[in-house]
Amino acid sequence: MLGGPGFVAPSERVAVAIIGAGGMGTSNAKSLLAEPEAQIVAVCDVAERTDLKAFWYRYEAGRKPVKALVDAHYGKASPNYRCADYEDFRVMLEKEKGIDAILCATPDHLHAFVSTVAMRMGKHVYCEKPLGHSVWEVRQMARVAKETGVATQMGNQGHSGTGIRMTCEWIWNGAIGPVREVHAWSDAGRWDWLRKSPGRPVETPPVPAGFNWDLWLGPFRYGPAYPFNAMEPDLKASELPLPPMYLTLNYRRSAAKNESLTLQIELLEPMAESFMSGGDAFLALAAAETDATRRDNARRLGWHGQYMARCCLTARNVKAAVIAERAKDRAKVVEIARAEYANAKAALKLLHADSRLGWEPTMLYRGGPDMVEWKLRYMEQHYAVGNR
Predict the structure, then answer these.
(1) Amino acid 252: pLDDT
(2) Residue 104: φ, ψ to 5°
(3) What is the CB neighbour count within 10 angstroms for residue 181?
């Protein structure tokens, strides 16, 4: 179809799907409606409705309100226009073949997951800040963007305006001379509620109607409780004055066949030796193998086994460290930190050998090499252990 003055032909419009129709997603959708070159064809959110009237946004969000907003806007020119709405973005991308690009405005922990899936399906991506949950995630997103060749952009609205860009040009051109010092400040009054917060919620009210808690969690499985219940029953958050030395172990739950499966440290401890011996066997096989493909496969299996062994050893060390922390036995904590430092260094070496190990289902070293590097630095500074 041909366009004309003030009119963009439908064939020239970018078909956009909104993934995450909360406060920022709704705001972005309103901005997109003013762009004649784009058309919102689908909206996805795990919540049918989210009442944000008491917060900064001052309106109702969720997939149903945003769908109504989109239908009303395009309905002025096309009375029968209907925007598709979905609860699961994966289902949406499979069914809606005409989607050209997605706008990701989910909670931060899903940015990398949603964007990577979309890019691998050939969709262009606009992702809200922060781009990912860790430096490692961001690097993986950049790698996938390069591999797929799709157009990408992060939503840094404040830094995209004329004022900021003009200021940069002035500074780069030497208008104020060499910059030797920068002062920054912020009115953080809107975050006062965080400072006054009594801490992590302990109540577990039922999941609100029209809200899919499991999909909200995405690949991060905290179990069926709502809103937060990350620790195992015998290790409550209030009983864990644990520094980041222990953050490579997540007391998380996974779901399989709609049944909650609890990760038991006790089950992991005896598995270390088995994983290590299995890994050694595959590495020996790789060394003796002559075919390049089979040798590489055997080597990866060997790394996998040794990596899993390191995860199991971390579980053992964390359990011992929790007991030592409760007993206020600093000497014991340092002893365990020294052992875990050596273990983490070995895990880091394996992660450098194959970065895919950072996404193991156990997620004990989630975040890839960057997380382990950070952990090692922390232990060096706070426990005076290690020497790299």
Answers:
(1) 34
(2) -95, 115
(3) 4
